[in-house]
Design a protein that fits this description.
Blueprint lengths: L5 H5 L10 H7 L6 E7 L5 H14 L4 E5 L6 H9 L9 E4 L4 H8 L7 E5 L1 H8 L3 H10 L4 E6 L1 E2 L2 E2 L2 H9 L2 E6 L2 E4 L10 E3 L2 H10 L20
Parallel strand pairs: 1-5, 1-8, 2-3, 2-4, 4-5
Antiparallel strand pairs: 6-7, 8-9, 9-10
Amino acid sequence: MRNWSIKNIEDRKYDFVPFSPRFADLFGKTEATGNWIVYGKSGQGKSSFCLQLAKEFDEIGKKVLFVSLEMGDSYDFQQALANAGIRSGCSRISFTDSCHPEELKEELSKQRSADVIIIDSLQYFIDLYRVRAADFIELRSKFKKKVFVYISHMKGNDVDGDTAYDLKKDAFKRIHIEHFKASYVGRGNGGPKGFFVIWDKGYRQFWLENGTKKETDGNNKENDTEMDD
C-alpha cells in the first residue's frame, strides 16, 4: 500500500491533451491517460466521432492505433476515413483488424508505440478475446501514459453487457453519442459547451424534424459529408 501526503499531491505534475478549441469545448482540461468510453445506439455517429478524435490526436502529435474489429478494411471503413478527413498525410495513425490483449501488451511495451488506442467495438473485443473488466483496468494501470478509447454499443438506456458496464464505471471520460451529437457525461467537468457536433447536416436535420431546439456549434460546419457509424 502506498500512502500520499498532501504535499505529494500538490507537487504532482500532469500531462494534459492539448486539444484544439472544438474538442476542448467538449472535453475541457483532459489528462492524457486512462480508459475512455464512447457509447451510443447504432447509426448515430460513434465511429465517426472516434475517427475525428483520431485525426485530432494525429494533428497534436500523438500516435494512434485504431483497431477496426467491426468494419475491418471494408469499403465502408474506407469511406468513413475519407469523411473524417483521414488521408495518407495523417502519418501518425495506423490500423489493424486484430488485437489479442497479449499482443497489444507486447506492442505497447515497445518504444515509440501508440499513445492512443481506439477499439471499435468494445463488444467485439470482449467476445473475440474473452476479456474481463479486470483486464481493461490492468491495461490502463500498466500503461499509465496512454489513452484507451473503447467504442461501445448500447442496450436499452445503457452500455451493452456487464463487462462494458464495469468498464464504463472505471472510465475516466464518458462520451454519449446521440443523433450525431457527442455529449460529455464523464467524471469531473467537461468543456465549456460539453458537446460536439459530429455531422452538422444530420444533426440539424434530426433536431429540426423533431421540433427540438438545437444548440449552435460553429466549429463543425465542415462536417457536412455523409457520416457512417
